[in-house]
Amino acid sequence: MIAVIKPNATESQRNNLVEWIRGQGIDVHISDGHDYTVIGLIGDTAKIDMDLIESLDIVDSVKRVTEPFKQCSRKFHPDDTVIDVGGVKLGGGNFALIAGPCSVESREQIIAVAKSVCASGAAFLRGGAFKPRTSPYDFQGLKADGIELLLEAKKETSMPIVTEIMDASHLPLFENVDIIQVGARNMQNIELLKELGKSGKPILLKRGLASTLKELLMSAEYIMAGGNSDIILCERGIRTFETYTRNTLDLSSVPLLHEMTHLPVVIDPSHATGHSKLVEPMALAAAACGADGIMIEVHNDPMKALCDGAQSLTPDQFDRTAKRIMQIRGVL
Ligand code: PEP
Ligand code: MN
């Protein structure tokens, strides 16, 4: 990290700052220029509050030379991370489709959808049991019973399951879940991230509605700091001024994240767009720009879905989309 000091700073003001920095356990390198002085901070600056230094009258600007995220940085770990769930892999050249309904609604529904998406080539079954709905009056999910039904669907199809956790106290219910999802609304639920760091389970971490890529990586860093490096990042659209789509899909996140981190990146075109007709084109674009996986909502009867019917593909639509995604992968 470097701090550029304004020309009018007095020597004693400069010395006070240097002493404060040294007091944080950081070495200092001072370089006096013609007008400005640059203070180089040497050591583990991750704990240094950049904004605090920048707020000082004598400081012109502060810049990080190294990133605040370490364990998830590609600099720290040049090889791609591969998530391996009993032989089903994602990342490092292993592309995977994750598909299933927004919410688990009944045994018939989840088993029918699981069988159809499995036949179409999906590697993982998704389905929400705990649902973070905007309205408290909407369907909140089948909770523990929903997880039991997902496990029944897993038995029928052998597909590993992905489902969302909303509260760390529910972790015992997730004992047999293969991948635990952290939804967009909980990306910065720090206590939850810390608990998941100790869980020993692969985590699918979704980008927050208004979060930067750096914030997404800092959340991944919380999980890794707890000892868990099995993390899949998921871009699911961010909030912008556009209202034709539910969110705005930031596809540039795929190549950017691949440069910044070794963690695999999955695109969720369903929540990103909110419209079933936009899911396939955006899924193809995601495959074309190098996503490690794509997560798509599929419902056997979208008109009757208890949640997110408008963005859900039918099993037939998913089958066609899955084939076209694999064609794009083939071209690449
Ligand atoms: C979901 O995947 O079911 C979900 C609620 O998505 P998000 O957290 O991205 O809104
Ligand atoms: Mn949904």
Structure keywords:
alpha/beta; eight-stranded parallel barrel; four-stranded antiparallel beta sheet; 10 helices; 33% helix; binds phosphoenolpyruvate; binds manganese (II) ion
Describe this structure as you would to a colleague:
The two termini are 39 Å apart. With 332 residues, the chain is α/β, with parallel strands linked by helices. The model has no long low-confidence stretch (mean pLDDT 96). It contains ten helices and 14 strands. 33% of the residues lie in helices and 18% in strands. Helix 3 packs parallel to helix 4, helix 5 packs across helix 6 and helix 9 runs parallel beside helix 10. The protein is elongated, with a radius of gyration of 23 Å. Helix 7 links the parallel strand 12 and strand 13. The relative contact order is 0.12. The strands form three sheets. An eight-stranded parallel beta barrel has the order 7-8-9-10-11-12-13-14, surrounded by five helices. Manganese (II) ion binds next to loops. The site of manganese (II) ion (MN) has 5 residues, from loops.
